[in-house]
Amino acid sequence: MIGILGGGQLGRMMAMAAAQLGYRCHVFTDKDNSPAADVSAQTTVAPFDDMEALDRFARSVAVATYEFEHIPLASVERVAARVPVRPGINALAVAQDRLSEKTFLRDTGIDIAPFEPVDDADALKRAVDRLGLPCVAKRRLWGYDGKGQTMIRRASDIKKAAAMLEGTAGVVEGFVDFEREVSVIIARTGAGDISAYPLCHNIHAEHVLRETHVPSGLPEPQMAQAKVMATRIANALDYVGLLTVEMFSLSSGGLVVNELAPRVHNSGHWTIEGAVTSQFEQHIRAICGLPLGCVRVRGPVRMRNLLGTEIDRVPTFLSDPGAHVHDYGKGKPVPGRKMGHVTWVDAQVPEVTA
Asked: Which residue has the higher pLDDT, 346 or 273?
């Protein structure tokens, strides 16, 4: 049995892919009625700091993984003491902390935005002075989808940034004037075998992913360089599983890594219908020691997230013979929440209004 820490839609689609390969999954989640619980053989609902529940969970599985990175490190370490956890603790620790992540990437020889660690208002002011305007202040921990960060465009924004940090440690990054946002989704086995999907072009609105397009539109040399960078990162982490490397593409032809996601990723949902092997199956293959699958793309692909009440438009999408609709079963729509997605492959893709 495969253990999945976290019960969201990523865990749901991971469990579905595992079942296709003949595996049963045990989900550990701190929330009732989670999307992953609907499709898993077994579910434990308990706080992530319930060590006895984590022990019981670990004893029931042969290998464990996680569907999001904001899990207390101590909880994952507890599971790892009894059963292999893939990706490993090191990758999770790096991705959880923005300063650790930036430091790791810099030391690995990866191009990133210039950054300065800050721990109080005075350090924040000094960092802004050194990096110049505009720049971005981010909390070190628990940031995602634009949460825990703010843009500093003028000196008067420093006060707002200090309030956002609320006395917690953070980092300030120099602003990157990019042409487009892309991601590399790469899988690595314990034996060091690596396979990368074609680059994705990601379109965000208010820091939330709205659409992913494949092909990315980047020139071949830039796409090749992105895969080289992602491979270097995966090898440096001795990574096992699926890794997502989010990057900025520059007009100069360069690439700057923005952040890492040590897991399956929203920008890879297109692979379910758009590639021979989905990112979810590829992750299961990697963590279970199976050969990696083919990443060939079936045709031009567009994936669109359904946020909040957009999920109510599912009947409309179902009337489109080219649409592949995914409803995560989250119940009542919440504004801005990812409720599902739609993918179109190798077809005339309709315009979808927000």
From this structure: 273
For residue 95, tell me if it sits in a domain.
no
Find the domain containing 39 and state its range: 2-85
- Identify the bridge partners of residue 107 per DSSP, sorted by sequence position: none
- Is 176 annotated as contributing to ligand binding? yes
Residue 145 counted as an annotated binding residue: yes
Q: Is 146 annotated as a binding residue?
A: yes
The H or E element spanning position 4 is: strand 2-5
Judge whether 31 is annotated as a binding position: no
Single-letter amino acid code for the residue at 122: D
pTM reported for the whole predicted model = 0.95
Co-location of 140 and 157 in the same domain? yes
Q: Residue written as tokens 């006895």?
A: 52
- 140-175 pLDDT tens trace: 997 776 678 999 999 999 999 999 998 789 999 999
What per-residue confidence (pLDDT) applies to 353? Answer: 44
Do 137 and 193 lie in a common domain? no
Q: What is the pLDDT of residue 166?
A: 85
107 assigned binding-site residue: no
Model confidence pLDDT, tens digit, residues 325-347? 999 999 999 999 999 999 999 86
Residue 225, marked binder: no
Q: How far apart are CA 234 and CA 318, in angstroms?
A: 38
Q: Are residues 221 and 322 in the same domain?
A: yes
The full DSSP string for 83-148 is S-BSS-HHHHHHHHBHHHHHHHHHHTT--B--EEEESSHHHHHHHHHHH-SSEEEEESBS--TTTT
Residue 340 assigned to a binding site: no
Does 330 appear as a known binding residue? no
For the chain, percent of residues with pLDDT exceeding 90: 94
Tally of domains in the chain? 3
Return d(Cα 47, Cα 60) in angstroms, integer.
Answer: 18
> Is 98 assigned a ligand-binding role in the annotation?
yes
Angle, in degrees to the nearest 10, between helices 51-59 and 73-80:
40
Whether 351 has a pLDDT exceeding 70, the answer reads: no
